[in-house]
Amino acid sequence: MRFWNTIALVSMTLLVARYASAQDSLKITKLSQWKTGTQSVYNEVWGIAQNGREYAVIGTWNGTYFIDVTEPTAPVMVDYVAGRDESCFCVHRDYHDYNGYLYMVTDEEPGSLQIVDLANLPNSVSVVYDSDLLFTTSHNIFIDSSSALMYSCGGNPNSGLSVYSLASPTNPVLLKDFQTPGGYIHDVFVRNDTVYAHAGGNGMYVYDFSNVGMPQLIGSLEFYPHKGYNHAGWLNKAGDTYVFADETSNMDVKIADVTDLTDILIVDTVNTGGDTNSMAHNPIIKGDLVYVSYYMDGLWIYDISDPGNTTVAGYYDLYVGAGDTISSGGAWGVYPFLPSGNILVSDMRSGLFVFDATEAETSIEVLEKPKIGMSISPNPVVDRLNIRFDERVDVRNIRIVDMAGKVVSYQGQKRSEHTLSYPIGELSAGQYIVHVATGQGNIVGTITKAASNE
């Protein structure tokens, strides 16, 4: 069992709460906003760098808009591609580009897979493929460029995972229909044939698809703090930290150590400190920063350079209220990978936003903190935990948290300890998170409470 040291930045938490109530932004500047001329509902956003210019792609209920954002303060629409049926109230669209083409899907009927050739930008785009033969709907797609494979999930006819070869980019070929133990897959992240499959209420599964015909389960995360509807996630460049969000009100974003995929460990959780109905939707990692779109709280950027000590780098709240009969509003997606560094965000009611987050990205204070080792025995445990530290530490309090994020046991104490004992006999059998707050930092571990023989 592995345990990691984290730092409790109580002052940062209070600071964030004050900012959230006093102003709508921190270290992020709005450059522009773009909307259609008529009332619409917006969904996913994607970014494209093509022929020396930058473009935003944003979905609406009837189709997809291509916006030139090379001049970020003056976005210009360059083209529009209608969905399979423009009368469809298509709330969900998703995009991914590969090899000069943009792949577009929707999760509402009647739908199709559309492939757009981007070569003629900035003049226009051209649809080179529009067919429902492979599938009619897909909730999300992800393209693993290392193997030229497109993964589709949550669709019709397969609500699990479907894998397509893009060896010929305009002629995708089905290679595999696959079902995970829970069946439905909502979203997926893939790198070098390793698939992180987000399965809603069933948690997250990680598979090795290097042999597409026989995928192998590597690990899973079915129980964890602040569990809700496991929605989407992203892997950092080093491949050792994965950040994911649960599409459930008032559930924290999770930062996970995935060094060992057979033993995925949550090392930190974060939230905006604002609206209790806050709901994280889509996180994306670039460098040591994770960019998160929140329905109620807009764009938030967190520093994960020390994954167990996540801090706020900046935010911009673009939520404008409860909304009207069309959409309740809120940030849907974020795209931080344009060469200029400008950030794209889609809002369900307010359309496309272009942000400059340079200050948030460059004014991060790096905190050097020592790591503290901790071991717990026995584990599984029936009555009493024995906690041992690598060195004597100033213990401030101990919290036992269940997998729903509720504190079920708390003990405050201020004393220097090398070892200590903690009674948990009254807890129900199950998995729990142990938080030990010390003067040198916080330490987090996982235990299994076994049933008493009495």
What form results from the Cα inertia axes?
globular
* CATH architecture call of the largest domain: 7 Propeller
Kindly, what is the distance between the CA atoms of the first and last residues, rounded to a whole number of angstroms?
A: 27 Å
The CATH superfamily of the largest domain appears as: YVTN repeat-like/Quinoprotein amine dehydrogenase
Helical content class: under 10%
Percent in strands: over 45%
Radius of gyration: 23 Å
How many β-strands, per DSSP?
A: 35
Any idea of the CATH class of the largest domain? Mainly Beta
What structural class do the secondary elements suggest? Answer: mainly beta
Q: Give the helix tally.
A: 2
The largest pleated sheet is described as:
6 strands, antiparallel
As an assembly, this protein is single chain
CATH topology name of the largest domain: Methylamine Dehydrogenase, Chain H
Describe this structure in words.
4% of the residues lie in helices and 50% in strands. The two termini are 27 Å apart. It has 2 helices and 35 strands. It has 454 residues and is mainly beta. It has 2 domains: 23-362, YVTN repeat-like/Quinoprotein amine dehydrogenase (Methylamine Dehydrogenase, Chain H, 7 Propeller); 374-449, Sandwich (Immunoglobulin-like), CATH 2.60.40.1220. The strands form 8 sheets. Strands 1, 31, 32, 33, 34 and 35 form a 6-stranded antiparallel beta sheet that branches. The longest helix has 13 residues, at 10-22. Residues 1-23 and 323-327 have low confidence and may be disordered.
